[in-house]
Amino acid sequence: PAPAGLPGDPDPEEAVSDDSSRHGGRVRGFPHERGNWATHVYLPYIAQEEFLELLELLVSRARTYVPSLAAMEEFHLSLSQCVVLRYHWIEPFVRSLRERLGAFHRFFCVADQVKVYTNQNKTRTFIGLEVSAGHFQLLELVSEVDTVLEEFDLPTFYKDPSFHISLAWCVGDLSGRLEGQCLRELQDIVDGFEESAFLLRIQWEQIRCKSGNKYFSFPLR
């Protein structure tokens, strides 16, 4: 490995304050260090107008149980945890991802099951749409991403992942308020939404890796 703090290293994420009030009360999963870049591999989902209508219905209903709930502004399906890369690892990491993922074709999955999640340290709660079809193809992608993560001695994805698209979030572990009756009402909204069957059958066309403020895309064939 190259020495830390190379001359000319960019520092878009350097000297970042951990004041949680500046980002909605969210708490870092790991401490910020100079030269460390938070990195995440995922499938981006571009929301259509009808999806945003469904989202508004779901968030409005869920806020009757948890008023602090906030809708997500961007949507994706994770293929990795958020891991830490040194700056000089980014280029070889992305190159290895490109080699591993280059043979994959576009595919569909269905994300139509409402589910409540918390992050590992229970500092945030999420409402998401869990995948009910297309699980096998997602596991194949994760297997390749995991191989790359292992090359860099980084944590791999969860052993039995619940693939999902997060819709809304709040600070703290409020899963108890959202599960049960609230969850049943949210599922009824999804099942009864006119465009639901068409809308929640998603074709994935690219994989993306975000590292710090850099984005890398890997088109599916």
Short description:
This protein is an alpha+beta fold. The protein has helices spanning 49-62, 90-101, 135-151, 175-178, 181-192, 196-199, and strands at 36-45, 70-71, 75-78, 83-86, 107-118, 124-133, 164-171, 201-204, 206-211, 214-219. The protein has one domain: Cyclic Phosphodiesterase, Chain: A (Alpha-Beta Complex).
Q: How many beta-strand runs?
A: 10
**Count of spatially separate domains:** 1
Helix/strand class:
alpha+beta
Element pattern in H and E: EHEEEHEEHEHHHEEE
Mean pLDDT score: 89
User: Briefly, what CATH class?
Assistant: Alpha Beta
Q: What is the terminal-to-terminal distance?
A: 33 Å
- At the third CATH level, what is the topology name? Cyclic Phosphodiesterase, Chain: A
Tally of individual helices: 6
Q: C-alpha Rg, in Å?
A: 18 Å
| Uncertain residue ranges | 1-23
Going by CATH, the homologous superfamily would be Cyclic phosphodiesterase
Summarize the main sheet. Answer: 5 strands, antiparallel
Oligomer description: single chain
Region (Disordered): 1-29
GO biological process, one term: U6 snRNA 3'-end processing
GO molecular function, one term: lyase activity
Catalytic activity: a 3'-end uridylyl-adenosine-RNA = a 3'-end 2',3'-cyclophospho-uridine-RNA + adenosine; a 3'-end uridylyl-uridine-RNA = a 3'-end 2',3'-cyclophospho-uridine-RNA + uridine
